[in-house]
Amino acid sequence: MTLRNAYGQLGVRAELLPVDLTVRHENGDGTRYGSLTPSWTGTSWNGHCVLVLPDSERFVDATVEQFDEVREIGAGPMIGKVALSTHDDGTMLEPGAQVLLQRGDLVLKYTIAGPEVVASIVEHPEAIAHADGHHRTGVNVASLTLAALRADGVRGRAMQAPHPRLRALLRAIGDAAYDADESGDVRFRLTDRTGREQWLRLDEIPLPPTVPPAWPRS
Question: Are 189 and 201 in contact (CB under 8 A)?
């Protein structure tokens, strides 16, 4: 949920996708993680979840290295290309559909859970109680990402990305200094039209009205 908000601040739509995951070795041995019918135990959610980026047809498993055999390879998050088709109920991958991705000598088989599982996550009291925290942390992650994307040799490519909000934010912050305030929020030092200095969070920076709002959108 934090990463979903971080993507969204940069104008990249990301959606939760609960999955069942089987990690299989070359010899056929495998371990199953997650579930097609995940559940809550108190404040803990028992399952595995990835993100799907519909506009670029990307599949992102940011926490795949929590599993020992995958972490040993040391290649970071799993990102793959998938074929998506949006249906009337908003689903982008059919429940039961499978995505196969390779990591070293491992084959990761993701099986997609149904949309009711997403509802069981986002509508749970624990998720609702921490929604503001996920948003705030997502804004901070996006801020540090934006600061990295403006570096020499990177900014030019970032400005070619098909995300108007990302490009507008890069123009807005320019080479402004940034720092974390007492509460831990990352803020950029910007000056307004009167020359007055302000320290603004990423979601407080004024952008032209033509710039698309951040995701998720109500």
Answer: no
Threshold 0.85, pTM exceeds: yes
Residue 19 CB-half CA count within 13 A = 28
User: What burial letters (b/e) apply to 6-23, b meaning 16+ CB within 10 Å?
Assistant: bbbbbbbbbbbbbbbbbb
Confidence at residue 86, expressed as pLDDT on a 0 to 100 scale = 52
Cβ neighbors of 209 (< 8 A, separation 6 or more) are none
Neighbours of 102 (CB within 10 A): 10
Q: Where are the beta strands (DSSP E) in 127-214?
A: 178-180, 186-191, 197-200
- β-pairing, 48-53 vs 58-61, is antiparallel
Query: Where are any strands of DSSP class E within the chain?
Result: 15-24, 30-34, 39-41, 44-46, 48-53, 58-61, 78-81, 98-103, 106-112, 178-180, 186-191, 197-200
